Amino acid sequence: MALRKGYGLDNSQHCFRKLKVLELICVPGKADALPYCFIRSLLALETLVLHDASFYQIFQSDGLNDEERHASVLTRLSKLRLSKLPELTHIWQEEFRAAFCNLRILEAEECGKFKTLVPSLASFENLTTLEVSRCHGIFNLIACSEAKSLILLERLSITDCKMIEEIIACEGEEIKGGIVFIKLKYLQLSCLPSLVSFSLGDHNFEFPALEKVILRKCPKMKNFCQGDLSTPKLERVQFTEDEDEDEKRGRWDGNLKTTIQQLFKEMNIQNSEVVEVNLQLPNLE
């Protein structure tokens, strides 16, 4: 069911106890968050889509007692899609981390004020798909401590985010052992002009199931990570989604780290040659 502009949320809270899919589109006026009483009434909700609204978070804890803050809500929610939410700064407060304990698909698009995708201590143990696009306020996607909980993640796609510098941020964190993405098969990093590395922290990464990497328009990406990297099933880096049909396309220089380093070096050489040619062009005036 989709609620479009002009439909009151507060008046509908008792009607949706069996609702499984809810789309809120063009929510009128300014609202800090969804009413907690409304969210709490959605006992069977599995898919939630928020599009074109002024929320700065999904819901907030202001005015709630301790029992309400730690109550489990939206426990059946498996898919959350957020799009065109220009005021959204974060998805939820830490008090509500239990709300998305069974979330499997998280998609965020055109959420310009996003700073951090998830708060600290949040757990995404059941997340299988994470896609972020055109969220230009993000500098890093997720902290190392949260990354270690992504044991079921299969698909990670980050595209067209102007400010993001690294995907996994480990600054100031003490992480024992490496970070293993056990089930990740698909990784796309596309149109990220500020991206320097997948992670700037000195940690080892393992991707035992990774089969497809798409790398496109990441001109500042010098290296994949600082520590050791294992991708036993990966055979090449693709530049477009359609390269599956042509096994000769793409690039591979023995391993993922070396391939990215070589691509960065070659791009710098090409750029320097272009600059040199431009400097040598005669003035025809």
Automatic annotation (TrEMBL):
Name of the protein in its database record: Uncharacterized protein LOC111295231
Superkingdom field: Eukaryota
Gene3D superfamilies per the UniProt record, alphabetical: Ribonuclease Inhibitor
PANTHER family the UniProt entry points to: NB-ARC DOMAIN-CONTAINING PROTEIN-RELATED, PUTATIVE-RELATED
Residue span(s) of domain Disease resistance protein At4g27190-like leucine-rich repeats: 12-120, 122-223
Keywords annotated in UniProt: Plant defense
Gene: LOC111295231
